[in-house]
Design goal:
Elements: H1 3-8, H2 19-47, H3 51-112, E1 118-120, E2 140-142, E3 161-173, E4 183-200, E5 204-213, E6 216-219, E7 222-229, E8 235-246, E9 252-257, E10 262-264, E11 269-273, H4 281-287, E12 301-302, E13 317-319
Parallel strand pairs: 3-4, 4-5, 4-6, 5-7, 6-8, 7-8, 8-9, 8-10, 9-11, 10-12, 11-13
Antiparallel strand pairs: 1-2
Family: Belongs to the TBCC family.
Keywords: Chaperone
Domain C-CAP/cofactor C-like: 150-305
Length: 332
């Protein structure tokens, strides 16, 4: 054999593996070892006692927590509901207790401290001749809790009285066709009127209104006192020396007052300034002995309220919102 042929040939030892085959064998062996180790660990874990019990315990604890949480939530909501119900009950109980105490206080006060007579005072004018109808302008005494009009105020003149009218009547005093003025020596008497509008267009001595329902009454200045009794859902616009309101509800009053208005056994009253305007108003105020600068329209005294000496705090009257004052003006 030639030399060149000998250099190109590679000698292979019989029975040996190549390096590549040896590497593959080692990798296969390593892979088998890893798989065997993984299988061994898995079997070891599965064979440990209590593993399933541990997992079950964890699941049980989770379920118990959820159950306890839901029960606690339910209990808290129930407590909140009971607290809200108790608050409403306590509020109602307190309100009832307050009303009961106020009633007992009023009853005991009337029993132990009888109130003195309240007087409408006015100086008697000495005259040489006095007609019968002029007796209404004399000094009158009004018992605070009597609820009755004094006999001296029940005398009235048929010319200046309106009774038993209803159904949207437009009424005027002095009456149409009457040439006599009212004057400070006479009284005006209004009774049992329903859905009527009344204009008293002269200065008078006193005015009495009883049993008016859904009426609007506009009154020129009154030299003496005004008595309103058992009137409901009415508007009164009046200027007077004294005002007494008894058993009257849901009325609005436009007032020009020389003294504090007095209410008794009345509710839902709203007061505002006098809104009547006409050419002779200033001179009529002077005729009635009233000052244009002095007006105690908002100084209301409630004789039915325990704190009757106070001019605020009574639930039976309030000041009419200013935006509604002009609604008391007369529609001529």
């Amino acid at each position: 054999m030639s030399t060149s042929d000998q250099g190109d040939s590679v000698s292979v030892i019989p029975g040996t593996k190549s390096a590549r085959e040896a590497l593959f064998d080692r990798l296969a062996e390593r892979h088998a070892q890893v798989k065997a180790a993984q299988l061994s660990r898995r079997n070891h874990v599965q064979m440990q006692p209590g593993t399933e019990a541990c997992e079950a315990s964890k699941l049980t604890k989770q379920n118990d927590f959820l159950s306890n949480f839901l029960q606690t939530k339910t209990d808290i909501l129930a407590d909140l509901d009971r607290a809200a119900d108790q608050t409403r009950t306590d509020s109602l109980s307190t309100s009832d207790l307050t009303k009961n105490l106020q009633t007992q206080f009023q009853s005991k006060r009337e029993e132990l401290l009888p109130t003195r007579k309240f007087k409408f005072t006015r100086n008697r004018v000495q005259k040489t001749t006095t007609p019968a109808v002029s007796e209404v302008t004399s000094t009158s005494e009004i018992t605070e809790h009597s609820g009755h009009i004094p006999s001296s105020l029940t005398k009235f003149d048929e010319r200046f009285s309106l009774t038993n009218f209803e159904h949207d009547c437009q009424l005027v005093i002095p009456k149409p066709g009457c040439t006599d003025s009212i004057g400070v020596e006479n009284s005006v008497y209004l009774a049992q009127l329903n859905r009527c509008t009344v204009h008293v267009r002269d200065v008078c001595g006193n005015l009495i209104a009883r049993g008016l329902q859904n009426c609007r009454v506009y009154i020129y200045p009154v030299a003496g006192s005004v008595w309103l009794e058992n009137c409901h859902q009415c508007d009164f616009v009046l200027a007077s020396r004294q005002l007494r309101i008894h058993r009257t509800t849901d009325c609005r009053l436009g007032l020009h007052m020389a003294s504090r208005p007095i209410i008794e056994n009345s509710t839902g009253l709203q007061v505002a300034p006098y809104r009547l305007q006409y050419a002779a108003l200033q001179s009529d105020l002077t005729r009635a002995g009233l000052s244009a600068e002095v007006n105690l329209w908002r100084e209301v005294e409630d004789f039915s309220h325990p704190n009757k000496r106070l001019t605020t705090g009574s639930p039976n009257w309030s000041i009419l919102p200013e935006t509604e004052w002009n609604s008391l003006k007369a529609n001529e």
